[in-house]
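User: We ran a pulldown and think these components assemble together. Before we commit to crystallization trials, I'd like a predicted model of the whole complex to look at. Sequences follow.
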Amino acid sequence: MLAQLLVSSLTAGAVYALIALGFVLLHNGTGVVHFGYGDQVTFGAYLVLIAQNFVGVPFSAAIMMALLASMALGAAIYAVFMVPLRNASLLARLIATLAIGTALREWLRAFMGPNAWPFPFLLSPAPVEVGGLMLVPANLAIIGVVLVILAGLYLFFEKTLQGKAILAACENRTGASLIGVRVSRVFLVIWVVASLLATVAGILVAPLLTLSPDMGLIAIKGFTAAVLGGFSSLPGAVVGGLLLGVLEALTGAYISTALKDMISYAILIAVILVRPQGLFGGLALKKV
Amino acid sequence: MLSLRNVRAGYGGKEVLHGLNLAVPRGAVVTLLGANGAGKSTTLNAIVGLARCSDGSIELDGVPLTNGTPDQALRRGIALVAEQRELFGGMSVSDNLRLGGLLRGRSRAVAEDFEKLLDTFPRLRERLAQPARTLSGGEQQMLAIARALMARPAYLLLDEPSLGLAPRIVDEIFDIIRRISGEDTTILLVEQNAMLALEVADYGYVIETGEITFEGDADALRGSAAVQESYL
Ligand SMILES: Nc1ncnc2c1ncn2[C@@H]1O[C@H](COP(=O)(O)OP(=O)(O)O)[C@@H](O)[C@H]1O
Ligand SMILES: [Mg+2]
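Assistant: Here's a predicted model for the assembly, 520 residues in total across the polymer chains.
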């Protein structure tokens, strides 16, 4: 029972981890908490539907188109909003992210309707029994996709100098530009990557939830995961996501399914009150 | 030749340099001396684009450099070791050093320079895996210089490398500066400690509230009333 629960909770946790990574990347790079990030998750999934139903391409091609379009969206958000606002106050930039999210969400409501759309699974949602555990291929696909992305990001950030240069720019912009990093290009890359992560998360989570303009509320869980991980650590975001998935599943199973969705808010508040630096490590010193 | 002509520069609306003239010929060690707040750091910052230039020109070999960015300056061969050092404190000493060679990509020459710099700065070799923020002040200064040298700059701008360090460490760092200047790197050295700077420099400028008030070769500066009064 417990083993089954942990396996199932990994699916949700993996998606939370992805969203948390997006939040942390954007925050580390640009200092902004992207309040419209959840709407980008929703928008990404809708992009697949739009490509399928209005462009008329098959599901796999629609996914490719959605991924490309979301990269363009990320670049556009950076160029149109974040560059002009680069010297604006933090509050102005936060409100801009909120506005971007609202615009995306309400555009979807206006043009795609307020109702839920069915969204295809990547693999069969019918459970298969393996050694006493019920495994759902569709869920395994989610975990698989997230693992591949995490491995790719890990290799890029830890093993390549280009990846380290991005982390360096997140830590110290002046220092990074002094070693030759074009900091504006780093921000562009971060917006593109985070937008891509949002769309992947949207595509993965849409069949589990239902795809409606308000699906982006799921991002509060990614946000909680990021807070659990300290909001500045990429590995912390991943661990936070997985942990939140497990805690949710345990709450749902042993306390009450009604509380399942509340638990992330409770955790969010508790962490902010008791341990604002996150569960892992001490307060990170940002500069030398 | 790096040259600044009638440079007015500062931060935001605040002008700090009021028409400054300065030249650094290739191969030379030039020092810029002045009291705290005179505009020494601003001069270096203006060269690499960290301070805004509102008038005048900054040129490298006759090609303008004015109001670029530090990464553009580095691509032209000018590296700044900033007063604040600007290390990546959360990253290892080794990563900081390797990042210094970012623009050169991966090559045997970069790997060789990495080893060579660790021979020059043996204290860094002992701390390769440590986060840069755990280093002592002197070690951080050494790392900042080594990181800049990883880019093999033609011009090295040093902003008060002796600041806040024990005399023994300062001697060590100035020995290294002397060695670097012998290896074909042109140096512009900013210092408050005139005696020390004039030991390594061929030529010097004195800056007071954003203007050059005296210049000459090292001997002339040592003998000058302005330097005598203020610093010696
Ligand atoms: N980032 C900054 N923004 C605004 N003013 C600055 C900044 N940095 C330095 N200043 C001002 O510029 C003047 C010269 O500073 P600086 O060039 O750092 O002098 P020095 O390096 O000779 O001690 C000082 O009055 C200082 O307050
Ligand atoms: Mg200074």
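Chain A has a mean pLDDT of 91. That may be worth checking against your pulldown data before setting up trials.

User: Thanks, that helps.
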